[in-house]
Amino acid sequence: xxxxxxxxxxxxxxxxxxxxxxxxxxxxxxxxxxxxxxxxxxxxxxxxxxxxxxxxxxxxxxxxxxxxxxxxxxxxxxxxxxxxxxxxxxxxxxxxxxxxxxxxxxxxxxxxxxxxxxxxxxxxxxxxxxxxxxxxxxxxxxxxxxxxxxxxxxxxxxxxxxxxxxxxxxxxxxxxxxxxxxxxxxxxxxxxxxxxxxxxxxxxxxxxxxxxxxxxxxxxxxxxxxxxxxxxxxxxxxxxxxxxxxxxxxxxxxxxxxxxxxxxxxxxxxxxxxxxxxxxxxxxxxxxxxxxxxxxxxxxxxxxxxxxxxxxxxxxxxxxxxxxxxxxxxxxxxxxxxxxxxxxxxxxxxxxxxxxxxxxxxxxxxxxxxxxxxxxxxxxxxxxxxxxxxxxxxxxxxxxxxxxxxxxxxxxxxxxxxxxxxxxxxxxxxxxxxxxxxxxxxxxxxxxxxxxxxxxxxxxxxxxxxxxxxxxxxxxxxxxxxxxxxxxxxxxxxxxxxxxxxxxxxxxxxxxxxxxxxxxxxxxxxxxxxxxxxxxxxxxxxxxxxxxxxxxxxxxxxxxxxxxxxxxxxxxxxxxxxxxxxxxxxxxxxxxxxxxxxxxxxxxxxxxxxxxxxxxxxxxxxxxxxxxxxxxxxxxxxxxxxxxxxxxxxxxxxxxxxxxxxxxxxxxxxxxxxxxxxxxxxxxxxxxxxxxxxxxxxxxxxxxxxxxxxxxxxxxxxxxxxxxxxxxxxxxxxxxxxxxxxxxxxxxxxxxxxxxxxxxxxxxxxxx
Length: 768
Known about the structure:
Blueprint: E1 3-9, H1 13-26, E2 33-38, H2 46-56, E3 62-66, H3 73-83, E4 87-91, E5 95-96, H4 101-109, E6 115-122, H5 145-155, E7 170-173, H6 175-181, H7 186-189, H8 195-205, E8 209-220, H9 228-244, H10 246-258, H11 262-274, E9 278-283, H12 297-309, E10 313-321, E11 326-332, E12 337-343, H13 356-368, E13 373-376, H14 385-392, E14 397-400, E15 414-415, E16 419-420, H15 430-437, H16 444-455, E17 460-463, H17 466-475, E18 481-483, H18 500-504, E19 508-516, H19 522-531, E20 537-545, E21 557-561, H20 568-574, E22 577-582, H21 592-599, E23 604-607, H22 610-619, E24 622-625, H23 631-642, H24 645-660, H25 665-682, H26 693-703, H27 711-726, H28 731-744, H29 751-764
Parallel strand pairs: 1-2, 1-4, 2-3, 6-8, 9-10, 9-13, 13-14, 14-17, 17-18, 19-20, 19-22, 20-21, 22-23, 23-24
Antiparallel strand pairs: 4-7, 5-8, 6-7, 10-11, 11-12, 15-16
Helix pairs in contact: 1-2, 5-11, 9-10, 11-26, 12-25, 13-14, 13-26, 27-28, 27-29, 28-29
Keywords: Glycosyltransferase, Transferase
Domain Glycosyl transferase family: 496-653
EC number: 2.4.-.-
């Protein structure tokens, strides 16, 4: 269908030139007509520019109307629509159209009945703005407008949703609507601002609809600032609209509040971010912020990988949250950090190895986020379907075994009498299962059978220590397992150790680190605390215990409580800690606390068990006790260390020697980057179903479910945003803060309240 493209022009030479050039490049002007209307521009270069285009392209349908006097924007647009007898596109002169723009918009305009207008997506078009709604968006520096538009088209779900009003920056109008509704109201809106809303609302009242063309992207430079005169003009025209169309205005405001097209925005946000890098799905049981106190070693390791590899890969972390009992995905992308909700499934129990709903959602997740590699770090709360789906979709899997969950869901293989349980004899697991899980059925044979079958499909299995590898190979004998130790960064700046209070303190300070449970040596902490009373030895705890009696100070015992991981080395040095007790009664697979001790140049005491003993023996940076050593054995060793300063200094020197060549986080990132790239290149993904609209709709629908945050944080955030609204920050910044609050606290009693505060302080009070 032939269409007339109307561009009203007043000055803006460079923008106008670029706009016309893109229309000529991307539009079939042997079929359609480009109508250029010069509204008596004061820039004398404009008319010659328009004539130049007609001269250079004589075979194209380019027409010029030159107003003899300045008619104003709305009258100029009406002149164009009266000149035409066909469908029209009203196109601002500060826009840049993109490939196939007009055919796509036309198809949208005739995709449904009773359509009056169509508005494409843009960087700066209020309701049609993407990826940030109601905002002026910046195109990333490594994207051209054409490339951005191509990705928008390629990822589009082609929903063509209804919107309450068109936007005049690029407004397709069907001739039927013009004939039945009339032209723009140039009497009321002659100088512009609000005329397209007035026309749109008249169309709505007549039964017509307005669509958003979500597969087409048009760049719009837009107005960068408003003068006082323009602001007053906008406000006065808004009052006209409110008086004429109160219900339409109310519906538009409701549309802005609810943002029903957020799926489109989120889809584009992901598509742009996913474009230039490979995408890695991290699977983990728990994923708290790195700055939280006492987070686990597995979570710390994942944060370290992301921090040191985010320039190379997009990371998407799938985890279970015990705050709301739901599964979430946090994506770390070049321009965003996005958290979406995957779903909520039947409560996890020991025997729930598979879950059909989880299986379906993982398929959707992998396709929607274009996952190239899955790196599993922990499967607690997860289901083994992750392996099945990966195999079905030919997505390679790497599995880092941080503990012994795949051998037994107790994870630690701990036995209080023997330290390491007899895990090889599954027949003897019944009594432990009865005590640990309150079950009378020995499920370990089935558990290991299913894990073994799935582990055989993994492209690479990694453990952080050789002792861990040996334990796994005793259980799963024919697996190929690679040892890749974790990295750790040294202290950048050590605290001043010349504190006079330290010199006065003649005590020998020893410390326990972390969350001290029974398997982590709680009984030794309790016994030592009693043993050192009245001696020249102090016991410190940096962390917490399961015995609350020891979460407070006692004589010769100092309780420091939770700590942030990066603060620990300095805390140890500031408290003049001389020896660290790592008395785990079960085998560790690596031990971050050992790394933290070593970078603080503090020797350790441990049992001859697991990765701690392996690492201490290899570098000779501490003392190893036989398993089942008594309290007297431990106290005797500590006393010997205290009274043998020469041997102690030898251990410290060996630590310093070790630190010179210690693997850093950067080294570890480089090592895993090589592993990832080799795996991805060896097993490239060829069949992502990225056009499966129903799947992506389901993902984005669930993505609207936001983590429930506590009321104290909610109220504090409400007060902060209200302060911003009342301050002198720019309108856009204040609006974005309101939108962020409303999208985060979806069920909050403050959600509508903050919106009304915004209207009052930022709109209504301006007019009073």
